[in-house]
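Just scan my protein:

——
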Amino acid sequence: MNYDIIVIGSGPGGYVTAIRAAQLGFKTAIIEKESLGGICLNWGCIPTKALLKSAHVFKYLQQAEQYGLNKVENPGFDFSKVIQRSRGVATKMSGGIAFLMKKNKIDVIMGTAKVQKGKKVSVIDKDGKLTEYSGEHIIIATGARSRELPNIPQDGKKIIGYRQAMVLPEQPKSMIVVGSGAIGIEFADFYNTMGTKVTVVEFMPNILPVEDEDSSKHVEKSLKKSGIEIMTNASVESVDTSGNGVKATVKTATGTITLEADILLSAVGIASNIEGQGFEEVGIQTDKGKVLVNEWYETSVPGYYAIGDILPTQALAHVASAEGITCVEKIKGLHVEKIDYGNVPGCTYCHPEVASVGLTEKQAKEKGYELKVGKFPFSASGKATANGDTDGFIKVIFDAKYGEWLGCHMVGDGVTDMIAEAVVARKLETTGHEVLKAIHPHPTISEAVMEAVAAAYGEVIHI
């Protein structure tokens, strides 16, 4: 029952941390109350992509004639099977984590954990049995859940969060999505593509508010064209569920209106899982719902660490994984580089996809940079034209003085797989001229990055 490392939570922060700890020679245990892989693999990142893939294929069937193929008469789908496929993908991935735990000789402890004083963790299993474990280092990676607003209380039936949105027994004819971050927009796109009438309500002036304004406006235009109704500068004041569906009272810039739908999806962000974890008893400091740590993820109590969505850092799976690896490598005494949170990519998997890293154009201007901005539309891309999907662009932002790549913003099919080029280039402090001299393959979608850089420096060829 004694370990070098105990990890609480098996999401992409927790399980990656446990594997790296085991690789470094630590005797490691991981504690999970539900399913290996946490929210990301079971109820988030992975199954949502499976749903979106089904929607994408369905859209292709409807567009068969555009590719010179015979028209698919009345293309349809079985909604329950679409959901079933998504759940199957999640189950397979969770099983893969179980294999990795066994391969790396990590003890998996199923149950609800609570940290105790003296570097101990108590675990209550499904039968109610309590067992105590001790660890020289305890790493907390308990993740987050759907955030609830007081005026939009989730009942799991008519007012739902992302978990229910992935396993609805029947497809709703209409849906109101409150919040237009990545979660809200991805579900709006999925349900709209499958035929649900979707209305998005966003408090901020633009959807995907953390993205560059050009990206936000372009995606809003594309989603509206696909049939999604989008209301920005709007807020849901109250929701009435007394009837068959829901009635949402929405305050807009021009007045108050009532929206009706079968169901309302609340996608207004996430809340960290820090309650009932024993933090107060142990003395672990928190602030505004987040655990406070230093640059190496040590909490206020020696021997206790925290990573992932319970921190004030970006609530992204890849951030949690990076934090966990950094944490255990520092514990091991390796030479470790601090995470550069200014070079973390963000992705939204709607259609068209959105990906970005670094500063937006507005942020760069506010910081006082003199800019070179380049933009290349996919309408000028040979590969995108051949693919039949030219919706989108690549936008790059450079410091005019030193050539530093300040930001990159992408909208289009497959851009979430391309943003890593900008991440690596920025990490290596690559300049725009170096990107121009790095030969990109033709025809590819990726050469649009080079073309956008060329546009920033007045050397673009294809526009």
The chain has three domains: 2-145+271-332, 159-268, 352-457. The longest strand covers residues 130-140.
